[in-house]
């Protein structure tokens, strides 16, 4: 069941205001046509549909409509609402729903508190994560191992190495073993600490090695709760592989989670030496790199300025019979554009052409990410940005607003006639998206 897309923003507020008297002003049939849910079960279905569509900004509107309709939310409804806000990284909405629960006499359970702590990590807000744990204790909601792992990874996202080590000590003192998600948190904390700790290299290698013998944390029930809420452990703990957990075999081997996070950290920090050490460890363990690992190796080389070795990693994977994926092509294109060198921009264009000829196509997210990078080119003919735009247009794919805005501004900085068809089309799409995003009226050519 879907919300009508035309019902949004201020117009929704007006509809809701008038709707307070709607049952007295319209017939039963008209009332049913105007409303998308009548009871708590139907509202819960709508919330699930909105979350599945990733239209998280509508969750507050649905809740407001429930209140106007006199439908009393249940604990299950609040579970669905807070799950949606966690997936959409909407911390203020989540805290609002928590406060509404308490105002109705419903105390969040441990699963909801874990979601809130996880959301704080997703929003890089470790202070609120700690405050939520304190609130749990005030309400006598007993935290379990999953709670502490959520808190560990929330603090790791903010680079709070001191707090992460304190949580590890507390867990150990309580007799809780460290599982692989604790080690991913330790690696992330070292990556995110500013400035990066001098012992980053030795610590990451140590954590990867120690994780091979990780003890099983008593979290069977916690894992079951996560599955019930349709949230993977990777998503709950904000692991960078979260968006890939449902991909087909060969893309992501979830048994290599610690390797994934370690190599992701190396790529982010452009540390080729540690990356190669970890890849040697993987080989000695007799493990085959999955697509995600190849992507991180490519990123590490490419962002370090070594285009040749990045390309070799890409070709070596495909030539050895590795699973092809559009993300591999996108990784090579994005990395080749680093520094906007002539060699890199040429490789980016050739890779896009090769990708297209092999039947791989950019989805809105990948296309937007690449267009945003390509639009930053200040010199040259803007060929790569134009090519990415054309590939998306050929499949009627509209990029996200930030990418369209960057591309539009890049075109405006060049000597292009105002009646140029490309500029006219981009301007029209930019203006439409700008109005929808609340950015004001249309821009003038």
Overall pLDDT level: 88
Rg from alpha-carbon coordinates: 25 Å
Largest sheet: none
Strand content: under 5%
Structural class: mainly alpha
Low-confidence runs of at least 5 consecutive residues: 1-26, 215-222
| N- to C-terminal distance | 40 Å
The percent range for helix content is: 55-70%
Number of distinct beta strands: 0
**Topology as H/E string?**
HHHHHHHHHHHHHHHHHHHHHHHHH
Question: What would you call the shape?
Answer: globular
Number of helices: 25
Describe the overall structure.
With 445 residues, the protein is mainly α. Helices cover 65% and strands 0% of the residues. It has helices spanning 9-19, 22-25, 28-34, 40-52, 59-68, 75-87, 91-103, 110-122, 126-138, 145-157, 161-173, 180-192, 200-211, 220-228, 233-236, 257-269, 272-284, 291-303, 307-319, 326-336, 342-357, 364-374, 383-394, 401-412, 421-436. Helix 4 (40-52) runs parallel beside helix 6. It is globular, with a radius of gyration of 25 Å. The two termini are 40 Å apart.
């Amino acid at each position: 069941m879907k919300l009508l897309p035309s019902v949004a923003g201020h117009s929704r507020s007006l509809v809701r205001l008038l709707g307070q008297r709607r049952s007295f002003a319209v017939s039963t049939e008209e009332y049913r046509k105007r409303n998308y849910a009548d009871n708590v079960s139907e509202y819960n279905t709508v919330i699930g549909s909105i979350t599945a569509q990733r239209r998280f900004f509508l969750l507050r509107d649905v809740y407001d409509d429930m209140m106007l309709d006199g439908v009393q939310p249940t604990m299950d409804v609040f579970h669905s609402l807070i799950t949606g806000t966690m997936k959409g990284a909407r911390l203020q909405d989540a805290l609002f729903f928590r406060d509404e629960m308490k105002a109705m006499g419903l105390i969040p359970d441990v699963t909801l508190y874990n979601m809130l702590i996880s959301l704080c990590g997703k929003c890089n807000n470790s202070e609120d994560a700690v405050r939520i744990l304190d609130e749990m204790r005030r309400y006598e909601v007993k935290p379990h191992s999953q709670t502490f792992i959520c808190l560990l990874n929330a603090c790791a996202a903010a680079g709070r190495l001191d707090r992460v080590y304190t949580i590890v000590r507390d867990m150990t003192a309580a007799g809780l073993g460290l599982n692989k998600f604790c080690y991913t948190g330790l690696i992330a904390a070292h990556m995110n600490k500013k400035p990066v700790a001098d012992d980053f290299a030795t610590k990451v290698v140590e954590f990867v090695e120690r994780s091979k013998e990780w003890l099983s944390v008593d979290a069977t029930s916690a894992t079951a709760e996560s599955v019930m809420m349709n949230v993977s452990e990777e998503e709950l703990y904000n692991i960078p592989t979260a968006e890939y957990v449902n991909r087909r075999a060969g893309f992501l081997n979830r048994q290599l989670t610690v390797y994934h996070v370690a190599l992701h950290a190396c790529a982010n920090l452009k540390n080729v030496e540690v990356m190669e050490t970890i890849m040697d460890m993987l080989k000695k363990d007799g493990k085959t790199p999955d697509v995600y690992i190849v992507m991180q190796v490519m990123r590490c080389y490419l962002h370090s300025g070594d285009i040749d070795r990045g390309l070799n990693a890409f070709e070596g994977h495909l030539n050895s019979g590795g699973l092809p994926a559009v993300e591999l092509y996108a990784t090579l294109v994005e990395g080749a554009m680093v520094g906007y060198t002539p060699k890199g921009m040429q490789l980016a264009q050739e890779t896009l052409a090769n990708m297209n000829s092999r039947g791989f196509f950019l989805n809105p997210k990948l296309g937007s990410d690449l267009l945003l990078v390509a639009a930053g080119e200040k010199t040259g003919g803007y060929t790569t940005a134009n090519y990415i735009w054309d590939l998306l247009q050929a499949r009627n794919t509209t990029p996200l607003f930030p990418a369209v805005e960057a591309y539009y501004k890049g075109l405006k900085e060049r000597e292009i006639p105002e009646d140029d068809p490309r500029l006219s089309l981009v301007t029209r799409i930019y203006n439409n998206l700008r109005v929808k995003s609340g950015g004001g009226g249309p821009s003038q050519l």
